[in-house]
Design goal:
Layout (H helix, E strand, L loop, with lengths): L34 H9 L5 E8 L1 H10 L3 E6 L2 E7 L3 H6 L3 E5 L10 H6 L3 H4 L15 E6 L18 E6 L17 E4 H5 L14 H10 L16 E6 L7 H19 L3 E5 L13 H11 L4 E6 L9 E15 L5 H4 L2 E9 L6 E11 L2 E7 L13 E6 L5 E12 L2 E9 L6 E16 L2 H4 L41 E7 L3 E3 L5 E3 L25 E6 L1 E4 L2 H7 L13 E4 L2 H18 L5 H11 L21 H6 L14 E2 L4 E4 L6 E4 L7 E4 L3 E3 L1 E4 L5 E3 L3 E3 L1 E2 L8 E3 L2 E3 L5 E6 L2 E2 L7 E3 L4 E8 L5 E3 L3 E3 L13 E3 L6 E18 L5 E17 L6 E9 L3 E8 L1
Parallel strand pairs: 5-8, 5-9, 6-8, 9-10, 10-19, 19-22, 25-33
Antiparallel strand pairs: 1-3, 1-4, 2-3, 6-7, 11-18, 12-17, 12-18, 13-14, 13-18, 15-16, 16-17, 20-21, 23-24, 26-28, 27-30, 29-32, 30-31, 34-35, 35-38, 36-37, 36-39, 39-40, 39-41, 42-43, 43-44, 43-45, 45-46
Helix pairs in contact: 7-13, 8-9
């Protein structure tokens, strides 16, 4: 059954007219209205009642409005629609109770823009931070299971007039093996080539007024028909399944449609979201039926798949009852339908219960007589347990207390998935004047869903009930409610996204230019939006979204045929049809999922559900808590995508780089896939030249993000400097930083432009320029010219070899400045400043490791060097 639909109308952005301004040097009280109202009041009749939208203190606004000769037309909390004489508007605006005035002279138009705002998709279009790009559904499949699609509608074509519809499987058409849809032997399939060649005879179902086209437009319209009515995902690819609602075992065809769409998407290598604004209210409402489980299995079979559906439009219908008893009895009356059983009259309904809840529960069918406002109990069948009625039709005779037969009761029960289904039928009862009751006793809980108009089961009595004083049995009456009024089967599955409907806007302008007012409050849940939870108390709907009232891409023949008879359903551009309900709310969320898949093509349905729930918006309508009306809140496209934004970073300290250097570039987190602008695809690359470097990565859900850009500069190495030598002094003429080396070892303190060589050996200097780039000078081989064998052979070191404690003796008294010990590589091992005068100098180098060293003693006269052995 297609849901009955109501539509969202969306307003067009307003163009501000050219305004005239007046200046006044005198300070005045601030007016709370803008240029349009100022300009309008210049030519308005002073007595004219000017309509205003106002926010402020309720009591104060009502009082000042009355005092100034105005009229409050609508009050909602702190918001008002009212009118004030033009001459009194300045006084009105100066009142402290008035906080805000809104006024526009531009007439309203119905557009999809309002829906895009209410779903926060406009922030995606504007690429608001932190999004790194805008998203349009490109590279994603949108599957739609519905009444069909208007292939000729420009909203579903590209700029060249080619169709955006990749496949249509029309299940209503007579089967043609040459146009078979996969392995299914019913209906006809056309691909885009056949559609573009005009070979397709598919038409959106006229009896549904182009419902499938409307739904598809909400998700996927690109607005090319008139530059208006853009859907959420305007570049998504479309696959349409035109379902046949009259098919026997219709839910089976839905499961097959899901399989068909997902397989087509797999063959194209694209992620896919399916929208199903269709369903049936009959069933267990727990998502455990076979069709629902097949669909859930297909969704969860692999990543890149999602399924969105309408929660239903029966929120104001009382077709559910729950009898939960604790050592007592409960009953509910069913009303006879003369149309039941092909006009024979009678009753039929189903009872659902978890097996664990019926262990101590018994049921019977009874009858009550109503006559002139008086009620009396007539009789009941023998109480029985559901498990005693499994897998066979049982017949019970219902008799009154005098033993007169009133009806034959037929029951049948089956067990699956830990639950019972009990069917109850009465064909052509002996009297149609009785109220037949379903009655339980003991302890346990059962659920019944029954409505003749929705699915040809008998209505339950919810109105015109006697009071307890009129009929004492009413103390045990279980009255039908509007909870769990959602669509059954797959809609109740925790694996699918079910969507409720809140009002998008209240007014719109139709094709005749007439302003239509639907007298609803935008943002408030629609009175028709079905309520949850499912039978297992799982929260449904998952979210709500904008549905009432919206114009969707229309079936063109329906629009042409309705221009005179039903103009209030037609947009001013004569290309779009007013629709709504959860049927239109659902595809707005499907469109959001398409944008999500463009961002994260490998996302799973469980991840999408979690992000959709956690990103849903709470406002003054939804209440802070999750509930069975709005679900987790209102779908918010921007917040949904924002949850998948991440910022990969390059874990790199940026040193100064010189030509010849290399720098590893590595990401701080591990990802599934890497794509560097250099063409590399590994987690780490080596940068060796001046360039711009960045990487685009994918996480496990296929979500992409790009690192910040690194602009690396490899500075040139300075020219190789030449050592200038003057005696034992070595120097460089280049300006920069210096480090001298002796025989390959760094000289401590050798950081000046010049250095005095103290030992024989090879010297060079590492020169560093202002860019921190370094190069080694040439090497100078030095033979010390200042070595003086002071004392000559009379200068002795004793003992040698030694344990490190030695005595240095000279022939003549002399002043020794310092003594230094070098290893054979020229590395300084030990040093001591002395500045003593004498002939005997005691040196303690006992902590020096064993080995051969050069001892160098420096005096005021020169330097001596001796080779020593420390053992």
């Amino acid at each position: 059954m297609i849901f009955q639909i109501m539509i969202n109308l969306n307003c067009k952005l307003l163009f501000i007219l050219s305004l005239f301004f007046c200046t006044n040097a005198t300070s005045q009280n601030p007016a709370k209205f803008g240029f349009e109202l100022i300009n309008y009041l210049k030519t308005a009749n002073p007595e004219e009642q000017v309509p205003l939208l106002v926010e402020g203190n309720p009591e104060g606004i009502k009082q000042i409005t009355d005092q100034l000769g105005g009229n409050v037309r609508l009050e909602f909390q702190r918001l008002f629609s009212l009118e004030i004489p033009a001459k009194n508007i300045p006084l009105f605006s100066e009142n402290s109770a008035v906080e805000l005035i809104e006024f526009s002279i531009t007439p309203g138009q119905s557009l999809s823009d309002t829906m895009l705002v209410h779903t926060n998709v406009d922030s995606i279009i504007q690429m608001a931070a932190p999004l790194q790009q805008s998203y349009s559904g490109k590279g994603v499949i949108l599957g739609v299971i519905d009444s069909g699609i208007e292939l000729a509608h420009p909203d579903f074509q590209d700029s060249t007039g080619k169709t955006r519809v990749l496949y249509v499987w029309d299940q209503r058409q007579a089967f043609n093996p040459s146009q078979q849809a996969l392995n299914y032997n019913y209906g006809v399939e056309w691909d885009s080539a056949a559609i573009n060649s005009g070979l397709s005879t598919h038409d959106d179902r006229a009896s549904e007024y182009g419902h499938g086209s409307n739904v598809t437009g909400a998700a996927a319209s690109n607005g090319l028909a008139s530059g208006q009515y853009r859907g959420v995902a305007p570049e998504v690819n479309i696959i349409t399944v035109a379902t046949d609602f009259n098919k026997i075992n219709w839910l089976q065809t839905v499961a097959e449609s899901v399989d068909y769409i997902f397989k087509k998407a797999d063959a194209l290598g694209m992620p896919c979201v399916i929208n199903a604004s269709v369903g049936t209210y009959v069933g267990s409402h727990d998502g455990l039926d076979i069709g629902a489980r097949i669909i859930a299995g297909l969704i969860n079979q692999k990543s890149g798949r999602s399924f969105v559906c309408a929660n239903g439009n029966a929120g104001n219908r009382k077709f559910h009852v729950q009898q939960e008893i604790t050592n007592d009895t409960a009953f509910t009356w069913f009303e006879n339908s003369v149309a039941q059983w092909a006009g024979l009259g009678g009753f039929y309904f189903e009872v659902w219960a978890d097996t664990a809840n019926t262990t101590n529960l018994e049921f019977s069918i009874g009858a009550d007589k109503e006559l002139n406002g008086n009620f009396s109990f007539e009789g009941r069948t023998v109480f029985s347990k559901i498990r005693n009625r499994l897998n066979a039709i049982y017949y019970d005779t219902l008799r009154n207390t005098q033993g007169v037969e009133l009806a034959t009761i037929e029951t049948y029960a089956e067990q699956s998935q830990g639950r019972y289904k009990l069917e109850v039928a009465i064909v052509r009862p002996d009297s149609v004047d009785f109220l037949y009751r379903f009655e339980t006793k003991g302890t346990g809980k059962i659920d019944i869903y029954s409505s003749y108009s929705l699915f040809r089961h008998n209505n339950m009595r919810s109105n015109n009930l006697p009071t307890i004083s009129q009929y004492s049995a009413m103390s045990n009456y279980a009255k039908p409610d509007s909870m769990q009024t959602m669509v059954s089967s797959f809609t109740c599955s925790p694996s699918v996204i079910s969507v409720g409907n809140h009002y998008n806007r209240s007014t719109y302008v139709d094709v005749t230019g007439t302003l239509r007012n639907m007298n609803v409050t935008p943002g408030l849940i629609s009175v028709n939006s079905s309520l949850g939870p499912n039978r297992l108390n799982i929260l449904k709907p998952d979210v709500s979204s904008a549905g009432d009232f919206m114009f969707g891409s229309g079936r063109l023949a329906t629009i042409r045929g309705s221009l005179n008879s039903n103009p209030n359903k037609i947009s001013q551009d004569t290309m779009h049809w007013r629709n709504g309900g959860t049927s239109m709310a659902s595809p707005t969320v499907a469109g959001m999922v398409a944008l999500y898949f463009q961002m994260c093509p490998k996302a799973t349905q469980s991840q999408i559900l979690a992000d959709l729930h956690n990103s849903a918006k709470k406002d003054q309508f939804t209440s802070p808590q999750d509930n069975f009306t709005y679900g987790h809140g209102k779908a918010d496209g921007f917040n949904l995508l924002k949850r998948r934004v991440f910022a990969p970073s390059l874990a790199i300290p940026l040193p100064t780089l010189c030509i010849g250097d290399s720098l590893p570039l590595v990401l701080s987190t591990t990802y599934q896939q890497y794509s560097w602008n250099t063409g590399d695809s590994t987690n780490q690359i080596i940068a060796a030249q001046s360039d711009t470097y960045f990487a685009t990565v994918q996480n496990q859900f296929g979500c992409e993000a790009t690192t910040d850009t690194l602009n690396l500069v490899f500075n040139p190495v300075p020219p190789k400097p030449v050592i200038n030598r003057t005696g034992d002094f070595l120097g460089l003429s280049a300006n920069g930083f210096y480090q001298w080396y002796f025989n390959g070892s760094r000289i401590m303190g050798g950081t000046n432009a010049t250095y005095q060589a103290l030992m024989n050996g090879n010297y060079f200097c590492q020169f560093t320029d202002s860019n921190s780039c370094s190069i080694n000078s040439d090497t100078a081989n030095v033979i010390i010219t200042l070595i003086e064998e002071w004392g000559n052979s009379s200068t002795t070191i004793f003992p040698n070899p030694s344990n490190g404690k030695i005595e240095l003796k000279t022939l003549n008294s002399i002043t020794i400045k310092s003594v230094e010990l070098f290893d054979l590589t020229g590395k300084l091992i030990w040093s001591k400043e002395i500045y003593e005068t004498g002939q005997h100098f005691n040196l303690n180098m006992s902590l020096v490791k064993r080995g051969i060293y050069f001892l160098q003693a420096t005096s005021l006269k020169g330097v001596i060097q001796k080779k020593i052995l420390i053992k």
